[in-house]
């Protein structure tokens, strides 16, 4: 019977997500990933080169899932308010995604590079915002890349530092609906073409 390479790759990626999210690329163990996947660990080296290559593949795969779940199509006006709310919901439902990004940011060397596929997901969204700005549908006061970055940061920060969130918000730290409402209200103010008077 022929070896199902794509299925094996998928099993390894899925097993690696939680291991990397829990322990980071330095603390993750190849043997544990292989055991979770039910695959010989030599397949990791065969398909991904090394543990760092597997980590890069996991990041690329997880970002592709996020991009597919929450697109900003260029052929329609991007609703940054809805985008922010969807990002917030995605991070609540998939807490491993931000943990993977934090682990990447903590790496001392730049061994994980934002390759063209990863960067392309963001470039498409920046282009969508830029086009809406050209049409006058989104504020042009903020460059599109800064606008996208600000929305992403606002949507993620609730989860990035839960202790600070709790210290600042008090009881509201346990109220995701209040957090979401505050987020989309802020983004609505940011994206408006004309300020309130």
Report the major sheet: none
* CATH-derived architecture of the largest domain: Orthogonal Bundle
Mean pLDDT: 88
Number of domains: 2
The CATH homologous superfamily name of the largest domain equals Tetracycline Repressor, domain 2
Detail the poorly predicted runs. Answer: none
β-sheet strand percentage: under 5%
Order of helices and strands: HHHHHHHHHH
CATH overall fold name of the largest domain: Tetracycline Repressor, domain 2
CATH class of the largest domain: Mainly Alpha
- Total helices: the number is 10
Helix content: over 70%
Morphology call: globular
Content-based structural category: mainly alpha
Question: Span from first to last CA?
Answer: 70 Å
InterPro entries: Homeodomain-like_sf, HTH-type_TetR-like_transc_reg, HTH_TetR, Sco4008_C, Tet_transcr_reg_TetR-rel_C_sf
Keywords: DNA-binding
Domain HTH tetR-type: 6-66
GO molecular function, one term: DNA binding
Care to describe what's here?
This protein is mostly helical and 197 residues long. The chain folds into two domains: 1-58, Arc Repressor Mutant, subunit A (Orthogonal Bundle), CATH 1.10.10.60; 70-197, Tetracycline Repressor, domain 2 (Orthogonal Bundle). Helices cover 73% and strands 0% of the residues. It has helices spanning 5-27, 30-37, 42-48, 51-69, 80-93, 95-106, 116-134, 144-160, 162-169, 176-191. Helix 1 (5-27) packs across helix 6 and helix 5 (80-93) packs parallel to helix 8. The longest helix has 23 residues, at 5-27. The radius of gyration is 19 Å and the shape is globular. It starts with a helix and ends in a 6-residue tail after the last helix. The relative contact order is 0.11.
């Amino acid at each position: 019977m022929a070896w199902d390479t794509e299925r094996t790759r998928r099993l390894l990626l899925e097993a690696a997500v939680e291991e990397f999210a829990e322990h980071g690329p330095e603390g993750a163990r190849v043997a544990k990933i292989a055991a979770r996947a039910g695959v010989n660990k030599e397949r990791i080296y065969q398909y991904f080169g090394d543990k760092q290559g597997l980590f890069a593949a996991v990041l690329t795969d997880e970002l592709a899932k996020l991009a597919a779940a929450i697109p900003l199509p260029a052929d329609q006006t991007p609703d940054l308010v809805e985008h922010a709310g969807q990002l917030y919901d995605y991070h609540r439902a998939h807490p491993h995604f931000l943990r993977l990004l934090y682990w990447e940011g903590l790496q001392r060397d730049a061994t994980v590079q934002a390759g063209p596929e990863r960067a392309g997901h963001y470039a498409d969204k920046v282009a969508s915002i830029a086009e809406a700005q050209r049409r006058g549908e989104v504020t042009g006061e903020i460059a599109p890349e800064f606008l996208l970055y600000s929305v992403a940061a606002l949507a993620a920060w609730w989860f990035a530092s839960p202790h600070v969130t709790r210290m600042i918000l008090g009881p509201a730290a346990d109220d995701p609906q209040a957090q979401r409402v505050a987020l989309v209200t802020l983004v609505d103010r940011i994206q408006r073409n004309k300020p309130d008077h």
